[in-house]
Design brief:
34% of the residues lie in helices and 22% in strands. The protein is an alpha/beta fold and 268 residues long. The protein has two domains: 158 residues, Rossmann fold; 95 residues, Hypothetical Protein, Haloacid Dehalogenase-like Hydrolase, Chain: A, domain 2 (2-Layer Sandwich), CATH 3.30.1240.10. Helix 1 links the parallel strand 1 and strand 2.
Length: 268
């Protein structure tokens, strides 16, 4: 079975790398023959540092679907059309917004240096913080604050883009039209109802809608409404649920194997 994991707030917390206990749990899944896929709002640049080295070549969906990688190689990157990007940049200036703009690798950050997103941004200094006028192809825009968030959201809804509001943080995530985690999973060859998904926020809704089983970590009204089940946003609770699901799958596989053996015995 394929297991798809969101990262922040799902299997890692407070922007820190995966703990030893979580890594051991994910390794347990792999040992049992399951495939792991990571699907995050983070671009690949910022996704890699929170994973152990031996997991950095696993299939990944970054930037809410804007980046898709397998075995460390780019499968696809979806950019905002130039005219739409220009319109968004004009809105940022108009509403005096603070923002993070992600290109294929480099970025442009204008916010508070103490903002949690800044602390988690390019921790290994793999990229450059470029000037706004140096931006070329834009994959994702994150609006950290603005003079009037509601007016900005209203304007964004008139553009062919995907927007997410992140929980109580009042952060707006902007991606190209048609880009989401499920689209990224499809680029990796994942089929509907062929995976189990773990997530905690609105950007996980598209992949939850196509999962065979979906686990909402913590309390999120919209995500909880479509999730198969919910679990507290505590690492131990999440680890226990992962192990429980893996053991149940193993039991079901054993029962299926016995049933098939009986069918073969009857046939012969």
């Amino acid at each position: 079975m394929k297991f798809v994991f969101d990262l922040d707030g799902t299997i890692c917390f407070q922007g820190k790398p995966l703990t030893r206990e979580m890594v051991q749990t994910l390794d347990f899944l792999v040992e049992k023959g399951h495939e792991l896929i990571f699907a995050s709002a983070r671009p690949i640049r910022d996704l890699l540092p929170i994973l152990p080295v031996h997991m950095q070549h696993f299939p990944m969906v970054g930037g809410n679907g804007g980046f898709v990688y397998r075995s460390g190689l780019e499968i696809s990157t979806v950019y905002l059309e130039a005219s739409i990007a220009d319109h968004i940049l004009a809105l940022l200036k108009q509403h005096e917004a603070e923002y993070l703009i992600d290109c294929q690798w480099d970025y442009c950050y204008s916010g508070n240096p103490e903002h949690p997103i800044r602390r988690n941004l390019d921790p290994e200094c793999r990229a450059k913080n470029v000037l706004l006028e140096e931006l070329t192809e834009i994959v994702k825009v994150v609006v950290l604050s603005s003079r009037n968030h509601q007016e900005m959201l209203k304007a964004l809804h008139n553009l062919p883009v995907v927007t997410y509001m992140h929980g109580t943080e009042n952060i707006i995530d902007i991606s190209p039209e048609g880009v989401n985690k499920w689209a990224g999973l499809q680029a990796l060859g994942v089929s509907p109802h062929d995976f189990i998904a773990f997530g905690n926020d609105a950007n996980d809704i598209p992949m939850f809608e196509y999962a065979s089983r979906s686990i909402c970590v913590g309390q999120h009204e919209k995500l909880g409404q479509i999730a198969s089940e919910m679990v507290a946003n505590q690492e131990k609770e999440v680890i226990d649920r992962i192990i429980e699901i893996a053991e149940r799958l193993q039991e079901e596989s054993g029962v299926f194997g016995e049933a098939m053996a009986e069918v073969e015995d009857v046939a012969t």
